[in-house]
Every structure is written in C-alpha cells, then in structure tokens.
C-alpha cells in the first residue's frame, strides 16, 4: 500500500535519472559560436627549427646574396663551416645570378688607368648603399697589392691583377674582392722570349658553366705585327701556348711599337662563352675561342655609316655584346651596335642622343675643338647597362669633374660622384674623366680562386 502510494506520490518517472545519478555524468553543452585562437611560433623557435633542419637551411642560404652570406658566417661555427666550404660556394655560384649577364646592375666599377706616368687605382660606387661596403673592399685591395700595378681586368666578380714586386718580379694574382681570397699565378713567357714585349692579361670566368677560370695572355712582337697567346687554366694549374700566332694586316705594321697595340687586348669581354676584343680604330673585333684556345678566323665588320668613327664603349650587358660608337664628330648622336649570337653580323640596336644633357652640363661639349678634325664631345662612357626585363637602359657618363648616371628611356639624371684631380694630375686635361677601357665591373660572388 505504501509502496503503491509512493509510486503514485511523485517519485522519478520511468527512464529518468535521480539527483545522485546525475552527479556521475558531466553535462556537455556544445558552443554555438566557438572561439578560434591561433598561436604563433616564437622567432627563436623558428630559428631553432631552421637551424636544426640542414636541408631547409641550405635552401635559404643558397638564395641569399654573397654580401649577406659573408656577414652570416659569424652567426655560429656551423654557419661558418657551411658558408665557407668550397662545395657550398660552388653550388651558390651556379644558383645565384651573380654573372654580369644575369645581374640587373653592377654595384660598382674598379678604375685603373695610366696617366701622366702614374698608375692610378680607384673605384666608383654606382649606388649610394654600396659606398661603404665598396670602400672596405677597395681598402683591402690596396693593402693587399703592395707592388706597382701594371694591369687590371675583371670578369663576373674575379679580378686579375698584374703587378711588379720590388720592381723586379712580375706576378699575376687572381683576387676575389667579396671573399678576400687570392691566388698567385707565376708568369710564363713565350718560347721566343727576346722578341715579345709587355703582355696583356684577361680573366675569363663563367660560374654558370664551370667552377674554373682561365687567363688569356696576349704578347705583342716588338719586331713584327704578330701576337702570341698563352692560356692558363685554374683546373690544371698550367700555361699552354697557342701553336698559331695572330698576324695583323700589313697596314698595321707601321703603327705597332712597344707602346701601342692595334686592339684593346687589356679589356677583353667574355660573351657567348668566348673572349672578345675590339680594334682601337673601331673597324673590327677579335674572338678568342676559350674551349679550343684559338682565335676564330673571321668576325663581321662594324657597320659604320661613314669614314670617321670612334668606339666609345665595348662591353656585355643583359646577355648581349655591345659597341657604342660615334661616327660624326660634330654631333652627340651615338650608334648602339649589337652582335648576333651566330656571329653573322653587327646590327644597329638603337641610337642615343645626348644633346639634351648639354643644358645641364655644358662641359660635355669641348669649346676648344676644331670641327675639321676633332669631335665636339668631351666626356666618356665607362659603363652601359641594359635591363631587358624592365626595359631600362642606363649610361654612366664621366665628364669634367663629375660622374653621372643617365637613364636613356625616361631621361633621368643621377649624379653619382665628384672627381677632383690629384696634385700630380692637375695640369692634365683628362685627369678627372674615366674612359670605358679604364673601368672594371664589380659583381659579388663567392667563387673560389
């Protein structure tokens, strides 16, 4: 009876939980708008992750410019070991676009000239951000070379320096200004030592094709219009002498002497895998086949429009070989020639009119020139840059006491530096101007020497 009454008097209905039973099971309530929180990894944790992952670290380091990698060598012993290893540097040279052809711009020019019996070494930084770093590189270079410099040539970041030690022993040194590494290379003379005079040395280095470089040395014959070539390979460490000599046409025979040569043999240009020189009269060029170590038999003539002409610039930029020339001494209109890759002909690529610059820089026109037999322009072009990707062309112009950069396409002028004549040069007319043949392009590289 009581049990029946209890059941009817409000006990828990069938299937329900008692209060004691409810305490044993947590009540789960799903949130309608749950919060979403993102936790960022700390920079120290990221650095640790990269440092511990060798493959990831190498991928990142291979993408960095040489100047940054030189600084990062002090991060740790591990980074120093990686960055300074020859294997890493060889691979970096192949992957990083550090050649003159692939670089959008050079950071600076090394300048070397012989003027007034004095040999001068200097540099021009083409961008303000490189002034301090180039000053450090130039200081190391001048401290390193204690002897008298006789010649300077560069190619894709490596310098070849010819100098006298104690005015008796002539040496060649291959120097990497970025890493401060160098190698001394002994000079070997041709078999006929007596008749050959001062040599002209060029360095050829293409890191996209090989880890090794070559030196090409041209010796002029003091008695005949003939040149002999010797080639040094860093791979073998030996000099090889060409069997055949280069004979200049007879019209050159009366112009040859110990002091004059028909070609700019001290300013060869590496292009299309070979070394090239331009004639001082601007009539033709020479191509030296580096693989076969010989002079190619024929090269096309430059298509000048009249008898008077002058080469104002000869060099490579953006993968093309250029000659900038003047063929009318009474104008400031310059022809830009480009050589076809199959060597079939030189073509007129464009024209450059520098007349608008005279308003800003009247010193670009020589007021003392004789229209009958002299050119009116009084400036030089040490460097020419073509950036095909961005459709930009830029000239570095050296005029009286000043170096400027001129963007041809948008006619923008940027003043780079002022040049003051030294005490020994104050009486010389061209003391504050640098020619194209006196500038060596500087490109950063980790290449081993």
Structural summary, described in words:
There is one protein chain. By secondary structure, the protein is of the alpha+beta class. Helix content is about 15%, strand content about 35%. The protein has eight helices and 24 strands. It has helices spanning about 1-10, 20, 45-50, 55-60, 65-70, 75-85, 85-95, 130-145, and strands spanning about 110-115, 120-125, 150-155, 160-165, 170-175, 180-185, 195-205, 215-220, 225-235, 240, 245, 270, 275-280, 285-290, 295, 310-315, 320-325, 335-340, 345-355, 380-385, 390-400, 400-405, 410-420, 440. The strands form six sheets. Strands 7, 8, 9, 10 and 11 form a five-stranded antiparallel beta sheet that branches. Strands 3-4-5-6 form a four-stranded antiparallel beta sheet, with no helix packed on it. It is globular and about 110 Å long. Residues about 1-10 and about 250-260 have low confidence and may be disordered.
Short characterization:
This protein is α+β, with helices and mostly antiparallel strands.
State the assembly state of the protein chains: single chain
Tell me roughly what share of residues is in helical segments.
10-25%
> What structural category arises from helix and sheet content?
alpha+beta
User: Mind telling me the C-alpha Rg?
Assistant: 33 Å
Sheet with the most strands, sense and barrel status: 5 strands, antiparallel
**Residue windows where pLDDT falls under 50 for at least 5 positions:** 1-8, 250-259
Helix segment count?
Answer: 8
Number of E strands: 24
| Rough outline | globular
Mean pLDDT: 80
Separation of termini?
A: 111 Å
Strand content: 25-35%
